[in-house]
Sequence to fold (132 residues):
Amino acid sequence: MSKPLDGLRVLILEDEFLIAMDVEQLCRDSGAKDVAIARSLHELDDPTGEPPAFDVAIIDLMLAGVSTLDFARQIHQRGVPFVFASGHSDLQEIAEAFPGITVVGKPYAGDDLISAVAAAVASGRSRPLSTP
Fold:
């Protein structure tokens, strides 16, 4: 029987250590092949200029006070599915900038987060944004 994240490479952008570890375990228990955690956007910088290899991302809106929206736009334009997992209550900007992208509010149930990630992968939200 397959699991919801069977074989996927998952990137977790989360600056809270315990939350990141919990989400990593949820992903692994749900079949993820590989799980990478970045606690800051700088951890994603690669000297070769190659983007990190992942199939889906779970993105906190703020990492140590730094917005992740530009990163989210970049991967969205590349066609990589993702969900936001955030404790921020003002989500209007997110809804406007990323229509159709799921925001899972903290605190969340693990099943809700994994279901949102699996749905993002399955629903074709990996289609790039149209450019003007």
About this structure: Residues 38 and 50 are 16 Å apart (CA to CA). The chain has one domain: 9-122. Residues 125-132 have pLDDT under 50 and may be disordered.
